[in-house]
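agent> Task received from the user: take the single chain below, predict its 3D structure, and emit structure tokens. No templates, no multimer pairing.
agent> Plan: (1) validate residues, (2) run structure prediction, (3) serialize to tokens, (4) report one or two observations.
agent> Step 1 OK, no nonstandard residues flagged.
tool_call: predict_structure(input=
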Amino acid sequence: MTTGEENYGSKAMGSINHVQLSRKSSDTPSPSSAFDTGPTAVDMEITLVKSPQDNSDNDNGRLPDVVVEAKIYDDEDQTRETYFSIAIQVFIPFLIAGFGMVFAGLVLDRIQHWPVFEEITELVILIPALLGLKGNLEMTLASRLSTQANLGHMDTAKQKISIIVGNLILIQCQAIVVGFLGAVVAVVMGAIKSYDVELDRAYLLCASSLVTVSIASFVLGLITAGVIVFSRHCHINPDNVATPIAASLGDITSLTLLSWVSTELYDSLGTQDWLAPLIIAGYILAIPLWVWIAKRNVHTKDVLYHGWTPVMVAMLISSMGGLILDFMVSRFEGIAVFQPVINGVGGNLVAVQASRISTALHKQAELGILTSESNVDEDTVIFISPVMSFCGKGVHARTTRVLMSMVIPGHIIFIYTIDYMKGGDTSLSSLFVVVYLCAALMQVATLLYVAYIMIHWMWKKKIDPDNSAIPYLTSMGDLLGISLLAIAFQFLYLVADHDTPGDR
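)
tool_result: status=success, residues=504
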């Protein structure tokens, strides 16, 4: 061995070399790259480390053993999504979720006449808050798990079990607390309206809320996790499908459970008055156990400490929507059947957009750092104009246009399905359809624009949008949806000879 070779061997050990292989991506790829669906840039880190067995300074005439460690980083994990791919992946789950909301509307239209709902009107105030929990908890869970899956943190069985079990425990804890507080808010709002509070009814309301949110959150959480794991296995972007699927059974499950539990407890009044307080006590005593388990899981510890504000504020916003619904149901009987549909469609579409933007930010930079292709300040990146939001060339503007294109056909399918299922009782005039679609378009357009600004602002402030954005957005969708729906019915009442859908 020559002296030069010995010097080379000693210098090679422990050195780190970076090899950057890149090609420029363009809108019109060359023929040679037309079939290349791989990443546009690869950053390879090569580390040469001296073998542990070679500890002597004397090489005995040979080069030392060298262990090569290589890591490859992809700048683009996925190929560029097209309008068609986004539309297909979103629209099918969107339709499934929509029909779930249609059936939820039919259930609500039916149960509003049950004795328990007519006697305890606070249950109607509670409904939007309970239905909003799918946005506060299940959709937030879907967004968190989708981001983890897209970042490759759910590729092994151990990772899946740890993340899924920890998050199921977390949302069980959150559901119990928020469900209880939602019932308390409904009792307070009912007391303000009627100037009276009956303790037995307050117990019934709290117990019904706790059982409903606990069972619904556990079942929907399992379904959501299963959908994300299956989507990852089939190479489908879970951001496009998880949130609508999470919502597809949310409304119908919550309404069915609420109507069943509240009816059973209502029938027990006077004979088993201890039942509702016992249920409340059992759930409250279980909270410390869920908190202890969630605190020990590294994937949920941070959310357990910092994820309460969004769900609490969202619950209050949804409860205000419930107050409007309670007032409008007594005025326009036909409004109840459309409430889950208009609120659900807006919530589903904005949740898809929120999940996609959050995942994109997680891939681009660390929390608190905003990046842009052009050298502009961060405020310009956050506070974009509505024209840029809907007509821009970026990936988020493209997704916005795809989601907006689904509003009119989706709602037409859903409202005419409602009309068919009710045997024509909803009296869908052309004027109603036009006014209803205008309200739906205004709701979704507002939510998508606010979503872009809110999520980027949260990212700059080092607030993880996966944990915070969707509760705010879906609760805003609930309040905006029921408000616009109430305005639409009031407008139709004034211009259509005091005749509104469902009143004949």
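agent> Step 4: summary for the user.
Residues 2 and 61 are 9 Å apart (CA to CA).
agent> Done.
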